[in-house]
Amino acid sequence: MNESTLFLITFAVYFIAAFFYFVFLFSKKESAAKTGLSVVTVGFFVHTLALIWRTIESGHAPFTNMYESLSFLAWSGALAYIIIEYKYNIRKAGPYLMLIIIGIMALASSPLMPDEAAPLMPALQSYWLWLHVSVTLLGEAFFAVAFVTSIMYLVADSREKKGVAKEGAITAEKLDSISYRCVAVGFPLFTLGGLVFGMVWAYKAWGSYWSWDPKETWSLITWFVFALYLHTRIVMGWKGRRSALIAIIGFLAALFTYFGVNYLLAGLHSYA
Amino acid sequence: MKSLIRFLSSVKLAIFLIIIITAASMIGTFIPQLRSAEEYGALYGQLSELLIRLEITDLYHSWWFIALLFLFSLNIVICTLTRLAAKFRRAFKPNLEFENQTLLAAKIQDRFSRKGNLEKSEGELKKGLRSAHYKIKETRKEAEVHLLARKKILGIFGSDIVHLGLLVILIGGIISGFSGFRTNINISEGEIVPVLGADFKLQLDKFETEYHPNGSVKDWKSTLTVMEDDNPRLTKTIEVNHPLTYKGYVFYQSSYGWDWQNPTLEIWAIKTSDPSSQKNAFVRLGEKVIWDEENLEFKALQFLPDFIIDGNQPRTRSLNPNNPAVFIEVYRGEDKISSGWIFAKFPDFSQMHSEEEADYKFEFKDIQTSQYSGIQMAKDPGVNYIWVGCTLLMIGLFLAFYWPPRDIRLILMEKEGKTEIISAGRSAKSKLALESEFKRIMVSFRRSQ
Predict the structure, then answer these.
(1) Residue ranges, chain B, pLDDT below 50
(2) Domain residues for B74?
């Protein structure tokens, strides 16, 4: 038994959960979705164990390279989904979110991702690593849920307009409000973790709270997109399609901040 | 003037500016910043001149980007101020003049009669509302009592506090940009350096590098002493992530390196036909070593830490000791009989040119030199504004998202010994929660009669 075994078990459990969700999607049997949720919850606990294991084994926070941070992002995504599902009953989002989570897990386990628990370079040896990365990724996980519900909104909305919405299907209006709630949770978390904690740590480690480093700039861009979402919605009363599109763009910007900047643009944030 | 204010206070302008600033920020991440004109020429050809002229090559400090940020700040200020007066009125001088019809038309409303006079009902109702943490304002006229029960009123100022926080951050950024400075110094053990613009000096007492078991660097530590008028004031060991702060100056551990100006070189001269005859010398550059037994003298003239041949000329590729090499000359009496480069990592690969048949060889064994510590000195008077701004930002976000104001308006009328009560709940951000709370309060109130 070691961390990678636990990781594989988690991966398998998420697969089983996705399977149940897809059974639910095609058979419309509520019981399948319920089983799916319990399986995800089990997977989440195994995943938590895997992360704790990794932390003890390496002696540092479980997100210092791409493998670790992807695994942590999948964990945050599962957590965000479990919270939202228990609170708002959005089972229909389950299959799609499980696909995203499995995709992230697959990416994490791909041989391209450096996964050896290397000792930490000096700049990363700080408790700000915990605060900055975990809160940011948690915020992004909620953006991911908003992304999925926004896409579902677009589908549900066009079906309702065409009059081909299925009986008992989750309404577009509800999806719209769930997206908003996810952004309302994700935005403060992202602001705190990504921008505020990021600035504090940058000041402590590099001596400058803001350097227009590409990763900093892209998290500001992500923040601006969601600020736009909130202003158009709250002040100008935008809802539905346009809001959904902004939320989708916002999550894509967050993804670019996370991956694109590392692989396409060089900067201070060269570790992960 | 009025139309200017209307223009500056519009949300549409804010949205336009957010989009433009976002787009500009993106461009700045794709076009490399602050490179030389030659590099831009190579990358963008004809376009490069335009990019430089438009300051896209230093976009975030260009006049137009700063102008955009300034306009954005102005927009935030005016947007916030124009909405603030109405919000203050709503919070501190709320309107208690409401009609039965308005309340009955609300989504969350209730109407019923209960036994008992108005005074008794009012007392119980207030008790119920207060136990649900509502604060109550009231007004009476004739046989009617109007109550306004509210909670989490501060929530309406959430967005304003966010905006204030952003402004404070922008102001801090301006102060940092204009009066902050940052500079890197290299300082060797024992050295004392002046601090730019300050009345104190800095001394490096000790510098050490810690390694992980696998050989990678774990940490760099510099023990620094602040000297004022030659008196030590404060000593602290700094490491990455743990700087020293003194009188508004902050000293960071940023890099390290070796002082190659004056290394001590360990050179062995060995007789080829009889390796037991050796001369092991520790020398500095230019020092002459005498090897009596062989009647030879030699000296080291030049040292390169990372030797490379570049166009027939030896030079150093970096300041790291990747391929240390030393140039030595060998004399017999007044005659130079041999010279050339010897390498610490390649003892068999010497490049000595001899005038005579040589029965000796030289080996470059080791180098000893002090490491210097790279320290970043910074003074940033804007940074405190940033932390205040961030705190306001987070308080504002919390209030805006998790402190949703609610109110319940009530009209109580006495009719034939009974009290008639009309009530309505209002909340922009937490309708569902208010609805269930409203029901709970009203139901328990009805039961209590």
Answers:
(1) none
(2) 2-89
Q: What pLDDT was estimated at residue A272? A: 39
Tell me: the pLDDT tens digits for A151-181?
Answer: 999 999 998 888 887 766 778 888 999 999 9
Separation of CA B436 from chain center: 44
State how far residue A119 is from chain B, nearest Cα, in angstroms.
Answer: 7
Choose the mutation target among B240, B391, B394 for the interface with A, i.e. most A CBs under 10 Å: B240
Q: Mark whether B229 and B319 lie in a shared domain.
A: no
Tokens 């399609």 — which residue? A241
B126-135 per-position pLDDT tens digit: 999 999 999 9
Q: What was the pLDDT predicted at B355?
A: 67
Find residues 144-203 of chain B whose CB sits inside 8 Å of chain A. Answer: 159, 173, 176, 182
Tell me the pairing of strands B288-291 and B296-304.
antiparallel
Residue A125 to residue B241, Cβ atoms within 8 A: yes
Rounded distance, CA A16 to CA A13, Å?
A: 5
Q: What angle do CA B154, B155, B156 make, to 5 degrees?
A: 90
Does the predicted interface ipTM exceed a cut of 0.95?
Answer: no
Q: Residue A18 — very low, low, confident or very high, per pLDDT cuts 50/70/90?
A: very high
Same domain for B276 and B342, yes or no, is: yes
